[in-house]
């Protein structure tokens, strides 16, 4: 089901792009599409579902598109949560598809309305990286995805655009703090996944470069005020999945 799910996610994203509908992959399937390293050992993994981000103003178009693609909407869920999220499923395979609207809201919040890769199939690499780094307690799947992103893409304007990350964290101490924690965790796990030494060294350099870039970036007054409080007050939200 893993490869089927990833390929189906790519198919849906391609069909949406052809229909000029801003519906872009995020999550693990987006990493699968953006990173050759995610498709082979040692970083390949199982994908349970495909997640997308769309715009709230396109709610009706998204629903019509998904129905045209053979998916059924979860009408009760969508009626209750449709302002921020839509759920669909394939009635044959029971494969779920989750569509967030406008914003990615987990431990931290990111506005992804205008986020897109050059091919329009996924959100931007910088945003994709941040959706993984914003996890307070990253798991093995997150680590594999992060390693693939940092293995396959440079920190550059035409790769992982660090300016986007600095813009998102300039006034958000909590997000930057979580990113630093995740980078530290990732660096500590580099030797645990059977990566070739050259790949591990490359990823390590990019981890250090991103951490140094965050430290050196100018900070806004909101960031500085929150930094004084530090971890004495919780700096992240608890995702709904964790609260359930």
Largest sheet: 5 strands, mixed
Strand content: 5-15%
Provide the spatial order of strands within the biggest beta sheet: 1-2-5-4-3
Residues in helices, as a percent range: 40-55%
Radius of gyration using CA atoms only: 18 Å
What distance separates the N and C termini?
Answer: 26 Å
Mean of all residue-level pLDDT scores: 96
User: Helix/strand/pairing class, anyone?
Assistant: alpha+beta
Descriptive report:
With 244 residues, this protein is α+β, with helices and mostly antiparallel strands. The protein has one domain. It contains 11 helices and 7 strands. It has a 5-stranded mixed β-sheet with strand order 1-2-5-4-3. Strands 6-7 form a two-stranded antiparallel sheet. A hairpin with a 6-residue loop joins strand 4 and strand 5. Helix 1 crosses helix 2. The radius of gyration is 18 Å and the shape is globular. The two termini are 26 Å apart. The mean pLDDT is 96.
Topology:
Layout: H1 2-18, E1 24-26, H2 27-34, E2 50-54, H3 59-68, E3 72-73, H4 75-81, E4 85-89, E5 96-101, E6 103-105, E7 109-111, H5 125-133, H6 140-152, H7 162-169, H8 173-188, H9 197-216, H10 221-229, H11 240-243
Helix pairs in contact: 1-2, 2-5, 2-6, 5-6, 8-9
Key features of this structure:
single chain, 244 residues, alpha+beta, five-stranded mixed sheet, two-stranded antiparallel sheet, 11 helices, 7 strands, globular
